[in-house]
Design goal:
Blueprint lengths: L2 E5 L2 E3 L5 E8 L7 E7 L6 E6 L5 E3 L7 E6 L4 E6 L8 E9 L5 E4 L3 E5 L2
Parallel strand pairs: 2-11
Antiparallel strand pairs: 1-3, 3-8, 4-5, 4-9, 5-6, 7-8, 9-10, 9-11
Length: about 120
């Protein structure tokens, strides 16, 4: 059974930091591209950062220079370090795992809420 479990969300003041984690099980983690998505109030879900299975990373313009994605293949986990948070970062953050190694496989976590407010 595949599971993706996000942790680390919460309430933080503007300018603060949070570190999200996505712990996976049931997949060969090293074969998967990991992406963090977010969906704010009345907004569409958007990809904010992703890391390929070879370690290459990419970021949405809105978070470039403030967020950092990483992966730990030994622990089958991905992380999102978020710095200098603003109220516009308020959203539910979702972890996604995708591979085309042996056909397409795509899995989602349940999400973790991030609220940036004073």
């Amino acid at each position: 059974q595949v599971q993706l479990v996000e942790t680390g969300g919460g309430l933080v003041q503007p300018g603060g930091s949070l570190r999200l984690s996505c712990k996976t099980s049931g997949i060969t983690f090293s074969l998967y591209k990991m992406t963090w998505y977010r969906q704010g109030p009345e907004k569409q879900r958007e990809a904010v950062a992703w890391i390929e299975n070879d370690g290459r990373t990419n970021y949405a313009d809105a978070v470039m220079g403030r967020f950092r994605i990483s992966r730990d293949n030994a622990r089958s986990s991905a992380h999102l370090q978020m710095n200098n948070l603003t109220p516009e970062d308020t959203a539910t953050y979702y972890c996604n795992a995708e591979t085309t190694y042996d056909g397409l496989a795509n899995y989602w976590g349940q999400g973790t809420q991030v609220t940036v407010s004073s």
